[in-house]
Amino acid sequence: MEIFFTLVIKLLPLYAFVLLGYLTGKFFSFKKEFLAPLLIYIIAPVVIFAGVVSTQLNISMLSIPVLFFVLCSIASLTIYYLAGFIWKDSTKNILAFSAGTANTGYFGLPVAVALFGHNAIPIVALALLGTSLYTNSFGFFLAAKGQHTTKESFTKVLQLPILYAFFLGILVNMLHIHMWPVYFSVISIFNQAFTVLGMMLVGIALADITIYKFDIKFITLSLLTKFFFWPFCMICILLVDSYTYKIYDASLYPVFILLSIIPVAVNIVSYATILKTHPEKVSLTVFISTLFALFYIPIVAALFLK
């Protein structure tokens, strides 16, 4: 119990930022569209660039985006198949899409830093690249049921700033370019800003959700996938890795497990709205998923992430 309360105390400031964001959105009508571009196009790329530059690049690290892209796709396809026994309309498509997403950037990164320190940033950055590629490629196709062309989806992927920050970070890392001392001071500020603003954005996005529809089957399948099927798959992968090829260092395992229990991505509501595929069901699922994660993560962390 001691480690549980220690972890809760570590995470309390992050939860406070979520609450602050929620209150800001509710009482001051502050919209996520005002804050999201700042995080997506400026702060997040800088954080990811710094994370990639500071890590030792090898096959193990560079395979992380592939690992998370595959995990997202496996979860998505599994739920698409199972949901087909319950729904015959587009419900199964949007459920499968949401089941494969993860709020890796705005939720996962701050939580990982709180639990494991800034050494976790490169790992989360690479995982974020994998989940983002899923969201804007395979996942989007699945949700849209083929309504969007390959060119449109590929263009959307190319518009991701984190993609260019990632490759620029690899280039700087491989060329062994030394940064000025002021660089590290600036990066520290960006990391703190991302933590505060990212968690506030989660709260603002939740406050922006105004239409809910309770579908017990939809919510149950989504939560089971995110908080039980994802970690089950991840633990199986890590067990196989630990007894066979040992691609990943054992020190990475706790971060991987944490990232496998991150709640549904908030921006899935925007996709559901654009595609006109049950945004009211997705909205409530995102809300419940985020609230559940606030209690579930400390429990899992206390049991498995010692």
Helix content: over 70%
How many strands in all?
0
Strand content: under 5%
Q: Which spans of ≥5 residues are poorly predicted at pLDDT below 50?
A: none
**What is the overall silhouette?**
globular
In the CATH scheme, the class would be: Mainly Alpha
User: What would the average pLDDT be, to the nearest integer?
Assistant: 84
SS content category: mainly alpha
How far do the termini sit from each other?
12 Å
The helix/strand order is: HHHHHHHHHHHHHHH
Q: Which CATH architecture?
A: Up-down Bundle
- How is the CATH topology named? Na+/H+ antiporter like fold
Task: Please give the largest β-sheet.
Answer: none
Count every helix, treating DSSP H or I runs of 4 or more residues as helices: 15
* Tally of individual domains: 1
- Radius of gyration, whole Å: 19 Å
